[in-house]
Design goal:
This protein has about 325 residues and is mainly β. About 5% of the residues lie in helices and about 35% in strands.
Length: about 325
Amino acid sequence: MTRTHFFAALRLFFLVCLSSSITEIPAIEPTEGSTWSQFRGENSSGSVATCDVPLPWTSSDVAWEVKLPGVGNCSPVFYGNKVFLMSADRDTAERYLLAFNLKTGEKLWQKNIASKPYRLHARSSYASGSPCVNDKAVYFAWATPERVSLVAFSHDGEELWGGEKDLGAYVSQHGFGASPVLFGKTLVLFNSQQAEELPPGAQPGLSRVMAFNSETGEMIWETPRTTTRACYGIPTLFKDESGTDALLFANTGDGMFALALETGKPLWNSKVFGKRCVSCPIVVGDLAIGTEGSGGGGNILFGVSLTGAHETKFKVDRSAPYVP
């Protein structure tokens, strides 16, 4: 089985985990060095070159299945022969950090994280952020109103960094759904929070992009962002016209914006959005593509130039995605 075919099989795995507490995976043969390291795969593109896995698959295509504790909206990630994911108890909010053998379905380890219930959107969960993984560790993030937590474990389940990092309070009427992502040794978390449509007396949150040394947990940089509505997309790496390695983000308050990967310095932004951004922005040629929307509709897809004045090149306001 080729590396591309392995990725394609994992996409099927992701679809099942999003819709059920039963994990199924088609019969595949893991290959050394294979990886699907983060939410939406390599550089958040959500794509593979080819796919010859049968869609839909049948019972004869499934190599194994395992019932997961709790529920969750996170996507699994894998490195080599190990799969990592998070779920949570719907009633108690206890979180389960899980590792499985990708070839056999054997549970390798489970970490139970005690918590307490708090307000969520009806379609959300206490495990909506996806982990990310590299050759050394797997990284998880979750939140309660009191704190955003970021933690690293070895592939064998040993807690790293000397324990869980407390990144401060979290404010959102929908719940936490941020996913950490890796760019080399830099671990990035888009900690987007809420300031609008809060209950009377509630204090607004503090939105920022945070970058850490993935090996030590030390913060490298932190860049404040405009706090309006909690947004949930992860960044995409691209080369800015200045030649800088840059991260592309989308949120309501700043619009489409770019930060320097090494320093977190804001490079530019284009305030094209007025509604919540849930999807992940992508780069297509010389365009940044991102969407906004709401539960009441009015969803729009924007194409913004990555060069010059970063003007809007087009927008699509029919059948655009909100929560894709």
